[in-house]
Specification:
The protein has 259 residues and is of the alpha+beta class. It has nine helices and four strands. Helix 2 packs across helix 4, helix 3 runs antiparallel to helix 4 and helix 5 runs parallel beside helix 8.
Amino acid sequence: MFKKILLLWIIITSLISIVRWDYKEIVTTVLNNIQTTNANKTDLQKRQTFENYIPKIKSLTSIDQRVKDALITYLNAKIAELDETLKTTTYESNITNIDKALIEKSWLERHNTERNSLDLASYTISPELNNTAQNRANHLAELNDATHKRLSTDGYYNYESIKSRFSDLWVTFPKEQNGVANFSENLAYQYLSCKKDDCTTEVLAALKKCYAFFMSEKSYKWPHYRAVISPYFTQMGYGVSKVGTKIFIVTHYSVDLLQ
């Protein structure tokens, strides 16, 4: 899509000397094409699209500087507009026939049972991490894939890339101390088949299996288990979402957040 837009820009700029179009008309034409790429995207995805276009626009040499400046100004304004919306956005699970409070209590207690057995302080629930985890769970359901990747160029787990997406949702961490991570993200999925009016029991069973997967790493101290027992983290949040018969569970853990 970007190549098509770039081609459009080149054609337009080639015509400038002939038809003497006002640059504002060119900007309008190009922006209409950018808006088309954002159709049916979430506000966060739109923000990321606008953000990704800015360095591409800056790198173009075939476009009049006035056009580039106008486009970048517009994109920065749209980012600021979306940021105001994202500050107050609460993400909801697409599984509505469950007792969310009971599931949250159960998920927290499972973690704290293990932590307390090691004389570690209990986790508390963070509404901010609940929101980021739910946002991620919703996205995984859209992808139908349990992946930590935020960008296609990311490796399996790119800490800085994940951190930037926390920032997009207005969640910020203090500066890392002595190379210790300030957060972690655990992902898991199970299969869920429930057509009842209340599927709380079935979701709890799925979460139990996910937690068993985390605990299976105990003897190896692998990442999922380390997140459960981190002595540095103080809080957690979770999100669940489903596609078809697959349920995705995302858990975010962190140190105390900056206000």
